[in-house]
């Protein structure tokens, strides 16, 4: 009986369990995601949206996409994944169609059946080309998503006008 007890006490599993201890190290609550690293000579320009940390969203600024993911679609299902995929497609489409014209992030708002795309663009574009791109984008996205798409754009003379702070 004593030999059986000694073998159970010296088994590898019991040795591992016996050597476990409670860790008392400091908690690492340092969040790094979504923050921009400072440069030595403060030469990196940041916009207002980039300057605000992720935990300050909805306190100082709003979200870049306003989803209605919790609404039911025609099949009576939650369409969160479809909305995220559509937003990804819209951003890629805007990046390809409006290449190097958007200065800010593309803001996507959904109001019932209407998709509103807004942002800030540079004024170095001819007015004819601007109206063509707006009409083309609204028509193509309306045809693809089977709902009306509207664009709300603001313009600025230079890219450096939207710089909020240098880090």
Summarize the structure in words.
The chain is flat and about 80 Å long. The chain has a four-stranded mixed sheet, with helices on one face. It is α/β, with parallel strands linked by helices. α4 runs antiparallel to α5. It contains five helices and six strands, in the order ααβαβαββαββ. Keywords: Mitochondrion, Ribonucleoprotein, Ribosomal protein, Signal, Transit peptide. It is found in: Mitochondrion.
List the helices and strands and how they pair.
Elements (H helix, E strand, L loop, with lengths): L1 H8 L2 H8 L25 E2 L1 H4 L13 E2 L13 H18 L9 E5 L2 E9 L4 H19 L3 E8 L8 E2 L1
Parallel strand pairs: 2-3, 4-5
Antiparallel strand pairs: 1-6, 3-4
Helix pairs in contact: 4-5
Q: Indicate the structural class.
A: alpha/beta
Main sheet summary: 4 strands, mixed
- CA(first)-CA(last) distance: 72 Å
Poorly predicted segments: none
**Helix and strand succession?**
HHEHEHEEHEE
User: Percentage of helical residues?
Assistant: 25-40%
Report the portion of residues in β strands.
15-25%
Radius of gyration: 27 Å
Number of helices: 5
Summed over residues and divided by their number, the pLDDT gives a mean of 80
Can you count the beta strands?
6
Order of strands in the sheet with the most strands? 2-3-4-5
Shape: flat
Offer a few descriptive terms.
single chain; 28S ribosomal protein S24, mitochondrial; ribosomal protein; Ribosomal_uS3m; 167 residues; two-stranded antiparallel sheet; ribonucleoprotein; signal; alpha/beta; 4-stranded mixed beta sheet
């Amino acid at each position: 009986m004593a030999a059986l007890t000694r073998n159970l006490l010296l088994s590898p599993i019991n040795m591992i369990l016996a050597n476990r201890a409670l860790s008392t190290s400091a908690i690492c609550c340092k969040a790094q995601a979504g923050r921009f690293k400072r440069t030595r000579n403060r030469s990196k320009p940041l916009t207002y949206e980039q300057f605000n940390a992720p935990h300050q969203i909805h306190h100082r600024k709003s979200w870049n996409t306003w989803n209605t993911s919790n609404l039911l679609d025609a099949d009576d299902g939650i369409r969160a994944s479809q909305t995220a995929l559509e937003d990804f497609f819209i951003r890629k489409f805007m990046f390809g169609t409006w290449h190097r014209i958007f200065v800010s992030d593309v803001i996507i708002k959904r109001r019932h059946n209407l998709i509103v795309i807004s942002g800030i663009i540079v004024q170095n574009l001819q007015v004819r080309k601007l109206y063509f791109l707006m009409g083309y984008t609204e028509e193509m996205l309306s045809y693809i998503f089977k709902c009306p798409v509207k664009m709300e754009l603001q313009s600025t003379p230079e890219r450096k006008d939207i710089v909020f702070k240098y880090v």
